[in-house]
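Supplementary Text 2. Reproducibility record for the structural model of the 82-residue chain.

All settings were left at their defaults, and a single model was retained for analysis rather than an ensemble. We include the record here because the model underlies the residue-level annotations in Supplementary Table 4.
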Amino acid sequence: MQLNELAKNPKLVIGVKQTTKVLMSHQAVVVFVAKDAEQHVVRRVIQLATDQEVDIVFVESMKELGKACNIDVGAATAVIEK
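Retained model, structure tokens:
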């Protein structure tokens, strides 16, 4: 999935807490993580995605991920649900 198509996806979920919930329910297709996000914030998301063999796409910055999600603030993580 291309980053510029992210905001158009109706199954897009944004934010660490919401991403974690999707991963916990085993409903994730692909996870996006900002490289400049605090590691202690995204560590669990990365671990859950790795354990479930969900693809992880690393984005250069929180600002870029937020923009791709069509929000006015940065985003540490986002996920596409099944």
